[in-house]
Amino acid sequence: MCLFLSEAQAFVTLATTDAYCMGCIVVGKSLRRHGTSRKLVVMVSPNVSRVGRLTLEDVFDEVVVVDVLDSRDKAHLTWLGRPELGVTFTKLHCWTLTQFSKCVFLDADTLVLCNVDELFEYEELSAAPDTGWPDCFNSGVFVFRPSLNTHKQILEHAAQHGSFDGGDQGVLNTFFSDWAVKDIRKHLPFVYNLTASAVYTYLPAFQQYGHHAKIVHFLGGIKPWHHSYNPQAASESSFRDSNKNFAQFIHLWWVEYYSQNQLQVKKDDKKNDKNEDYSVQQLDSSQTHQTPTQSQKSSTEALHREMRLSSPLQDLTLDSLTISSSKTSEEMNILFDVMSEQETEETPIVSPPSEQETEHKDPETADDSSVGTGQAIAAETEEEDLERRRMWEEGHVDYMGKDAFDNIKRKLDLFLE
Ligand SMILES: O=c1ccn([C@@H]2O[C@H](COP(=O)(O)OP(=O)(O)O[C@H]3O[C@H](CO)[C@@H](O)[C@H](O)[C@H]3O)[C@@H](O)[C@H]2O)c(=O)[nH]1
Ligand SMILES: [Mn+2]
Question: Mean pLDDT across the chain, nearest whole number?
């Protein structure tokens, strides 16, 4: 029964360009990292490169090709300042995924920070308020029920009324027009679609509630894949105020982008068993060592190479991305060093053991690890640090434990002070 339910539900995202494929990879990996039991589906338009699609196949259960739907509504999109967003009408095709009874749509520019499977308890159409106009919902995260009938009605509605912002959000808000007032149970908490905002009430609220964030949404023209995160820059003008908080999320985004994913490891294992080769890896013949981490890297690198050929973004070349990625790993090391330093100098920051861990702890080992002297802790910390560093470098970030977001944030805050 449970299995049936989880097979009939899916998280869905969308990419109509290779740049947005990068975002989808992070959406998929972050959902898997946090152990979702639902299927992962990505819709792609036919112009997405073969490498882009193959890379997505490493992460998603289904890659569904859909036609591009473009509002071509230059007038309204100019109001929004985002002429490129006409293609977001393509998102409306998510209602055609009738192999699922219920889905959660996530924009390609979102990052999942914990398990959010409880979103499937909500009904169509559930979404979080938009920070720009809170009586409208933001269409970056929403719960819906696929139905060809609803799909047809929405497209007819779009043809008849157009979209007040030129994108899908305008159409969906006028189609589900009673969202603001009819049923509060369809209002998702803001932490499921946390966007940055310059409104003056935002910062204190972020300080108070920001650590409850479950899904971060990098709304706006600049996406995480457009720049790398630099800890120093966090104190400079480009990362001031609310963006400073988001700089930390951008860092996490890059960590997730380069992390390994379980589906890839499974596929690599299969490949080794059958002695087959994957075309993504064949594209990267310069890679001699085929450890899972490197093969995973090679598929993202292959995507980067493809982007250089076909990216619509002028500034997004292989070179800039390579610099971004090396900067990122350098920064990860800086971050790691800061975390290690702080840990040996101060009380080690570790998440409290879960009840289960406490229950099953061997009393002998429990003696040294949990109630040892300061010296024992320091000695162990050094060893643990080395191991953790190795794990971190291989992309196994312990988000639920030592590398939990709260710990990283605390260390970054200290570092940036
Ligand atoms: O060239 C594009 C542009 C967008 N998308 C997809 O459409 C989504 C929405 O575009 P995005 O750039 O994320 O828009 P936002 O900056 O989030 O802007 C807002 O306005 C959009 C237009 O109404 C809505 O789609 C968004 O959900 C809403 O948050 C992306 O995440 C992608 O999944 C593409 O695949 N290719
Ligand atoms: Mn978005």
Answer: 72
Residue with tokens 């049936």: 4
Strands 102-106 and 110-112: unpaired
**Residue 28 burial (C-beta neighbours within 10 Å; 0-12, 13-18, 19+):** buried
88 CA distance to ligand 2 centroid (A)? 10
The token pair that represents 342 in the structure block = 């702080």
What is the C-alpha separation between 253 and 224, in angstroms, rounded?
7
Contacts of 161 (CB under 8 A, 6+ apart): 171, 174
* Residues facing residue 103 across a β-bridge: 10, 144
Report the half-sphere exposure of 344 (CA within 13 A, side-chain side). Answer: 14
Q: Are 34 and 112 in contact (CB under 8 A)?
A: yes
Q: What is the rounded distance in angstroms from the CA atom of residue 194 to the CA atom of residue 146?
A: 25
| Maximum CA extent, the chain | 73
pLDDT (tens digit, 9 = 90+) per residue, 119-157? Answer: 999 999 999 999 999 999 999 999 999 999 999 999 999
Q: Give the mean pLDDT of 386-390.
A: 66
Strand partners, 215: 112
CA of 224 to the centre of ligand 2 (A): 11
Q: Which residues have CB under 6 Å of ligand 1?
A: 13-17, 20, 84-85, 87-88, 91, 107-109, 138-140, 165, 167-170, 219-220
Please write the tens of the pLDDT for every residue from 64-112. 999 998 888 878 877 777 878 889 999 999 999 999 999 999 999 999 9
Instruction: Give, to the nearest 10 degrees, the angle between helix 241-257 and helix 18-33.
Output: 80
Amino acid at 184: I
Q: How far apart are CA 107 and CA 14, in angstroms?
A: 7
Q: Scan for tokens 């970054």, then name that residue.
A: 412
**CA gap 170, 210 in Å, rounded:** 27
Question: Hey, what are 181's tokens?
Answer: 């007032």
Site to probe by mutation for ligand 1, drawn from 24, 42, 80, 85 as the one with most ligand atoms within 8 Å of Cβ, is: 85
Bridge partners of residue 144, in order along the sequence: 103
Report the nearest-CA residue for atom 29 of ligand 1: 140
CA 189/CA 162 separation, integer angstroms = 28
* CA distances for 89 relative to 154, 166, 216, 257, angstroms: 10, 9, 22, 26
Percent of the chain with pLDDT over 70: 57
